[in-house]
Design a protein that fits this description.
Layout lengths: L1 E7 L5 H12 L10 E8 L8 E8 L5 E7 L2 H39 L1
Parallel strand pairs: 1-2
Antiparallel strand pairs: 2-3, 3-4
Helix pairs in contact: 1-2
InterPro entries: RHF-like, RHF/RaiA
Pfam family, one: Ribosomal_S30AE
Protein name: Putative sigma-54 modulation protein
Length: about 110
Amino acid sequence: MKIRVQSIHFTADVKLLDFIQKKADKLDQFFDQIISGEVYLKLEKTDDEANKITEIKLLIPGNDLFAKEQCKTFEEATDKAVESLRRQLDKRKEKLRSHANNLKSLSLADENL
């Protein structure tokens, strides 16, 4: 999957970019129709230690999926955002499956008439 990473107001190092790509690639296991992804890394100016924000937008057929997490490290925020997207992808697949089953049962009912 092609991922575009933008770090806002700082430069992300290669290790962080590789980590994000590796985590995002795992999402292909759950849904094979992912077109691409956009990742935004932001540093929030607060006194709180959890000032690192990761936002991930997945482009898939139909609607896009989005997750935003704020943690002490970008790695932790990325892990949580990817997990949130995995759950969203599972829900999307289940919805598509139930829709396909409904269509199949409708076509079988039409054949019996």
